[in-house]
Amino acid sequence: MSNSPQYAPYSPQSIKPHTTTIESLVSRHDVDIHSVRITWVDLVNAIGFRVVPLKSFQRLLASSRPGITVTQCVFGFVINRAAFGFGPVGEYLFVVDLTSMRYCPYAPGHVSIMGWFQDKVPAPGRVLGTGVPMCPRSTLNRIVDAAKSYNAAFLVGFETEFILLKSTNPIEAVNQHGWNSALALPSGTKETEVIEEIARALVDSGIELMMYHSEAAPGQYEIVTGPLPPLEAADALVHTRQTITNVASKHGFRATLAPRLHADNCGSAAHTHISVHPIDSKHPSKFQNQNQSPAGTSDNLITPLESVFLAGVLRHLRASCAFTLPLRASYARMLDGIWSGGTWVAWGRDNREAPVRLCVPAASVDPELANNTPSKNHFEIKCVDGTSSPYLVLASLIGSGLLGIKSQSPLVEQDCATPAALMTEAEREAVGVTQRMPMSWEEARAALAEDEALKGILGDLVDGFLAVGETLDGLLHSPTSEAERVQMLVEYY
Q: Are 324 and 397 in contact (CB under 8 A)?
């Protein structure tokens, strides 16, 4: 009999986030935990935190709503100024989420914890103790909860691409080696030490590390982390990014998530993998049409639930790009012919020139297994980069998919087996591919402003997001030279 561990298939019911508990902090003897980083992510994907000594944190937990007060302008601060519509009056209570605590191996003695921005005192029309409309984490949680009413649950995993720089002025990568190259991770080099320390730190903090490798641009690496429910996946990505940047900093490097540093090299993405699952496959809700046949999928590539979810994602993808590609610099990566998802609203099985790639599992040699298992498909959303907030990315993408599930949207676009840019107009029309992706920052923001359905499901944070984005754009483009603008980009992202 084998003594090998048994692994259940990934599912929303079986996956656990492997965070830690407050009880374990005081009982752990191998690490002296003395500080708690109360952490949040704002509308421009800036990570903020306040450090609270452990004893003070324990005292804080004795209150009925354990948290810290933060100015309501927290979502309006952009680098060194406040965006239009945000001012000095008002406070939120940032209530800690005790299910989100993780060790910070890159900062010995520290743990991090996420939370919810709530009204400090009762506000008209809102229930005290619930997330405020401007809170991205609360918005994502609300959308995921709403999907449960439609018998839908999700798993999310991320690829984190980044470039290790030994200098930001001038921009200089740690090496010139490329995709999956053994030469990019030789023993004894500082970059290999950094990548291995990042890997160990992620595992030690409870995040499932699936693999790491070098990528195609100079000094570029990729960290792949395992699937989690959406909220926990977003939290884990924030922790992953903090681990990467802090370990790199410790060794004198800058790890940047900037979308594309040089026109003659590949960009850096945050490919987002989403699978959609019926909560109860034996008793699907009335909103899940089991008889619907996905367009162009005569070999049953996707399930009916996957079909309506995908239809919603594609219908609102142009607007979602305002969140997934939030900077002008983001659009330097979104081109045809460079394997970054292309410029047409499309999906395709294992098509890396489509913004949504259907990832199908390897075929089983066991016919019984092949015919009697739930779908193991997932969708890779390629039009996402590391300058985006994972909470806003997932709120917009899952929110779009939920709109498709609620309306039982037909999937107009068929499986795109050829890069859309290489098709004739007639060939694209034959497979339902008729819309271009946003080609600029302005175009994506205009698409969001016009998408009433997506704005309706996301709520009031859309206006705040557009306002702070305008301010951020002005600041990032204030330097007079391109070199100075790139330097500023890598210093903040």
A: yes
